[in-house]
Amino acid sequence: MHIDARTGEVVGTYSSADEHDGHTYVRCGNRRASVCPSCSREYKGDAWHVLMCGLAGGLGVPESVTTHPSVFVTLTAPSFGPVHRAAGKKGDKGKTPCRARRDRPVCPHGRALSCTRRHTDDDRWTGQPLCRDCYDYTAHAVWQWHAPELWRRTTIALRRQLARACGMTVTRFRDLARLSYTKVTEFQARGVVHFHAVIRLDGPDGPDTPPRLDLTADDITAAVWAAASAVAVDAPTPEGGTLRLRWGAQLDTRTITQGAGRDDSTGPAHPEMVGAYLSKYLTKGVEDFGLPTTGRVRSVSDARHAGATDHACRIIAAAARLVTVHEDYRPIVRRLGTLGYRGHPITKSRAYSVTFGSRREARRTWRRRRARLEADALVRDVLDLDPTAVDQADAVITLGSWVYAGRGYLTDHDAAQAVRTHTLTRIRRAA
Questions:
Q1: Based on the domain organization, do 250 and 286 belong to the same domain?
Q2: Domain count of the chain?
Q3: Fewer CB atoms inside 10 A, N or C side of the chain?
Q4: pTM to 2 decimals?
Q5: Shared domain check, 178 and 236
Q6: What's residue 393's pLDDT?
Q7: Domain that holds residue 423
Q8: Are residue 390 and residue 330 in the same domain, yes or no?
Q9: pLDDT tier at 214, thresholds 50, 70, 90
Q10: Burial, 216: exposed, middle or buried (Cβ in 10 Å; 0-12, 13-18, 19+)?
Q11: Same domain flag for 269 and 379
Q12: Residues 109/131, Cβ–Cβ less than 8 Å
């Protein structure tokens, strides 16, 4: 029931019983493109706004953030054993072999540690260990589980490095500047995550004010390298020892500036390139490893039944063995479907940019008020409205009770109609 907040009058009612099959269909909200292209596209658009507003301003974030020093950082995991790798893009004739070695070494198990093939990104061998018995699956699973903690300690160390560069305490540094960031997670072909992050230096009040310290993007870059090489996490292992976890040697930093080229793969990075690059990975998951994107993986048997690769199954088996090692590993049984990774696909500091919630609230506001728009009104005029500034006289209270019925379509006819509608929509967009 929709009730007018001012008069208490019921202005509208709805019941799923009025539908032809007695059910109401809503958006699934899944971010993965392999599950729902429509919801994935919407999620990617929201992510684009969250990322770009922190890079170039907009939607309440001042455009002056483009003058704040910012750096695009990529942090990777260390090596757990040699794997097959793709050297170049698909169709590139100048690619180098995977692991060409003149001495052709072999591992203790008699397997070759060299490979002269030229793998592509979609090659089934890309990311697979050269020797599965030599690959350290236990360290892989332990590092994957503690990766979010390693990132947290890196942000703390980064503030300390910047404060030390200015010759002051961290408390004094926070009075003059604030470190804002956003982080996006990507799974590498070897089944381990690496992080792409945008790190920006603001004033003490956030993006509305410039930093009160004479620090440049080069200073942030130096602090990132120092922090990444210094932080570590000690974690227990099944053998009763302790494993010291660190970042891998492949650390990359690029200054973000408006003057950079949008297609430059090295050197300074353009804000739009960074925003597009990061939002692209948010619609991907573990489907490339043959793991299901819906439903929980409770064991290695579930993963094999779903068609997961042998490499992914071995990672899951190593993660499952950690449950009995320490109580901190007990929740890992709920993360086997993500190869033991427990973090979110995207995180950000409080003052970096707008939020996903604000973008969803903007769409709800547009749906409520679009009937009152002028004929030549722009959609962005409504999307940029502050929800708290909406006239309270127009507020409508919604009372409802819903029960989850199921996922997907109830009949083959409904599913076929949905596919037809989706196809026609794509044709219209292409035209």
A1: yes
A2: 3
A3: C
A4: 0.85
A5: yes
A6: 44
A7: 2-30+355-430
A8: no
A9: very high
A10: exposed
A11: no
A12: yes
